[in-house]
Specification:
single chain, mainly beta, three-stranded antiparallel β-sheet, 1 helix, 10% helix, RmlC_Cupin_sf, signal, Cupin_2
Length: 153
């Protein structure tokens, strides 16, 4: 699949479905994660305009090295990601785990009550193409402490 095709796939997921932030005490830092912004569009808030007004849309390529982690975080807006390579294992706010292999799409839940951590438990890098639909000025992710069920202090 070409880069344009991947961006289109992520964009279609967003349409069909509708830098990290400041540190928080106890937050778990990411490690082994790199990200590249592929596209960004801001829709200014105009009174009486469409529902997407006042929204930032960003497409990013994210790579998580073997053994890498995103750290615990949450999103202020919807995030949809296509797993191009590897298997992404996400630990959710209730400490349940979900593994998503290459070729599958992930839809992240929104807000601080949906903290999660993405990890690469495999031997090849995990490559994601993610689409962020965020309120203007918000970071791609908000750092958060691990939930009590994860044994965090």
């Amino acid at each position: 699949m070409t880069s344009i095709g991947r961006i289109g796939t992520v964009g279609l997921c967003c349409i069909a479905a509708a830098g990290l932030s400041r540190a928080i005490a106890g937050a778990t830092p990411p490690s082994g994660v790199t990200a590249e912004t592929l596209a960004h569009v801001s829709f200014p808030l105009i009174p009486g305009s469409a529902d997407i007004a006042g929204t930032d849309f960003t497409a990013r390529k994210i790579t998580i090295a073997p053994g890498g982690t995103t750290g615990w975080h949450y999103h202020d807006g919807p995030v949809y990601a296509y797993v191009e390579q590897g298997v992404l294992t996400r630990t959710l706010h209730d400490c349940s785990q979900v593994s998503t292999p290459a070729g599958q799409v992930i839809a992240e839940e929104v807000n601080a009550d949906h903290v999660h951590e993405g990890t690469n438990l495999g031997t090849v890098p995990v490559v994601l193409y993610a689409a962020y639909i965020e309120p203007p000025g918000k970071p791609f992710a908000e750092d958060a402490p691990a939930p009590p069920c994860a044994g965090a202090a």
